Structure formats: C-alpha cells, structure tokens
Amino acid sequence: QSALTQPASVSGSPGQSITISCTGTSSDVGGYNYVSWYQQHPGKAPKLMIYDVSKRPSGVSNRFSGFKSGNTASLTISGLQAEDEADYYCCSYAGSSIWVFGGGTKLTVL
Amino acid sequence: QVQLQESGPGLVKPSQTLSLTCTVSGGSISSGNYYWSWIRQPAGKGLEWIGRIYTSGSTNYNPSLKSRVTISVDTSKNQFSLKLSSVTAADTAVYYCARGDRFDPWGQGTLVTVSS
Lengths: 110, 116
Known about the structure:
The complex is a heterodimer.
Chain A: E1 9-12, E2 18-23, E3 35-40, E4 47-50, E5 64-69, E6 72-77, E7 86-93, E8 99-101, E9 105-109
Parallel strand pairs in A: 1-9
Antiparallel strand pairs in A: 2-6, 3-4, 3-7, 5-6, 7-8, 7-9
Chain B: E1 3-7, E2 11-12, E3 18-25, E4 35-41, E5 48-54, E6 59-61, E7 69-74, E8 79-84, E9 93-99, E10 110-114
Parallel strand pairs in B: 2-10
Antiparallel strand pairs in B: 1-3, 3-8, 4-5, 4-9, 5-6, 7-8, 9-10
C-alpha cells in the first residue's frame, strides 16, 4: 500500500477558504467511505477532525468539512483562522484490515 | 474521557527489539468494541500505521512491517503493547497509540531513537 498523495503545502489568508486534496486509488479512497482527516500542531499528537469522509466529531468546528469524489478526498476549511495553521493528514481504509495515511500538508495562514 | 499514554525506553540499539506499552485510562480497554492501534511518525515526516489489536487478541499489521511487528493486549492492566524486532535507524520515530478505526483519541506520543 502506497501513501495517499497530498500537496506538500497550502496557504490562505484569514477569513478565506482553502481545500486540501488527498488522492488514492480505487483500492483505498475510492473503494470505501472510510476517509478521515487529522490536524497536528507542532510537537503535538494528531487530532481527529473528520471521519467517514464528511462527519465531524463533537467539538470540531463546522468550518471544517470533508468530501470525496472518486479516488480523491478533500478537506475544506472555511473562515481561516490563525489557529488553523498546522499539518493536516488524511487516512483511508485500504481493505484487508489495513489503513494508509497521506504524506501530510502544511497549512500556512498568511 | 478516555486517555492513552505511551511508555517505554527512549533509546534502543540497532538489531534489538523495540518495546512500548500504551496504558488506557478513563475507561475499560474491553468496552465499546474498539480496535487499538499503533502509529509512528519519523521526525519531519508523515504518519505510518503500524497495526492494531482487538481485545479478543485479533491483530492486523501493516504489510511493510508485518514480519517484525507483534501487538499484544493485557486487559487486566488496561494496556496494549508493541514489539518491533530487528530495529534500524529507520525505525527512529515518535510512536503513538490510538483508539478505534477513527484513531481517536491519540496518546501524546513517545520518541524512540535507534542508535548504538
């Protein structure tokens, strides 16, 4: 299983919206509705932001949303805030009880 | 709420076995029908799923690590453990434990360095 493909970096200004893509194959992202997204601030553990493609855990801002089309999943953050600056990772079920992560995307809030 | 805490040696010699334990607090490891996973992150790099265990003892491993990984559970101690054999410098990473297929929550992570 190869890592899912994410852009190395994205940026946006406060108040704007950004979208991070996560591209896999029909054997992982495209084959199952089990894509999750994690936010990781420097030196901290990852935090679940989205699961099952588009569901938000309790306590996560509704500024975060997830979507999937074919083999590509995406995370959109609207109304960017300084505190959103972090690394973001996608993860997908890949069949046979295996999970695969993306390479991560560094979000910079300008 | 449930919290996870990794523990174990921070330094392991090459060719030896890395051993870590994840202690679950705030709830029973046996409740909720959860899998319990290990995930690692080399410095400055992305996350890698290592494997998981169910409280029945059923395990699944990343194929790239399967030959070297063993995950076990001790429900009496509310803990699950990771053993990674024949380690090299490439196994140097922060190791996390996490709950369920959503990987939520995570432990704070523990840095393991492989060096002589």
